[in-house]
Amino acid sequence: MKNLCIFDQKDTALPFHSVPIEQNENNIVKFLLLDNGKIFLYDNSHLYHYKDHKLECWYETHFKIDQIFSDELLNVFYIISDQHIRSISYENDTKCYDTDLWALQENIDVEPDDEIITAALSPDKEHLILLTKSCLVITLSTNFTLISQQDVLSTSERGEKESVNVGWGKVETQFHGSAKNAAQSSA
């Protein structure tokens, strides 16, 4: 790590005062910096684009935005909301397309009030891991086909009521403490 150095640095003051972002504990503004230098910010229901020293509302939703992942090769944002994964693909800065890609209730047998708590994209961008409120871990491929689902709290597949060998060995070779060893040697 000592061979790393900063080769480019730029300070930019973003004009937050011009954006009608609600300031409360449930509405946190998050930041996306793309490799091509584009800057996006998002809160619970808006995606903002910083361009030409202006912060403009680029996309407004009717659902709650939890997380956004970007695929710069395809110019797509993947939006994770309570029970859906949506994509926003765009041709340019003014025209975008919103598509509902995957719905939790339609693809997995879950309770109606279950929702996606968090998601993570693998470093190679080949798998998307979702965690639901009911502690279900769901693995999806890049084309949103289900790879696996596992209930984290379930013990049905973990050897419940099976004997376990912990490798203690024979009774003669086990450590019993100095008091028991002294009693056995005197007997």
From TrEMBL:
<protein>
    <submittedName>
        <fullName>Elongator complex protein 1-like</fullName>
    </submittedName>
</protein>
<dbReference type="GO" id="GO:0000049">
    <property type="term" value="F:tRNA binding"/>
</dbReference>
<dbReference type="GO" id="GO:0005829">
    <property type="term" value="C:cytosol"/>
</dbReference>
<dbReference type="GO" id="GO:0002926">
    <property type="term" value="P:tRNA wobble base 5-methoxycarbonylmethyl-2-thiouridinylation"/>
</dbReference>
<dbReference type="InterPro" id="IPR056164">
    <property type="entry name" value="Beta-prop_ELP1_1st"/>
</dbReference>
<dbReference type="GO" id="GO:0033588">
    <property type="term" value="C:elongator holoenzyme complex"/>
</dbReference>
<feature type="domain" description="ELP1 first N-terminal beta-propeller">
    <location>
        <begin position="1"/>
        <end position="184"/>
    </location>
</feature>
<dbReference type="Pfam" id="PF04762">
    <property type="entry name" value="Beta-prop_ELP1_1st"/>
</dbReference>
<dbReference type="InterPro" id="IPR006849">
    <property type="entry name" value="Elp1"/>
</dbReference>
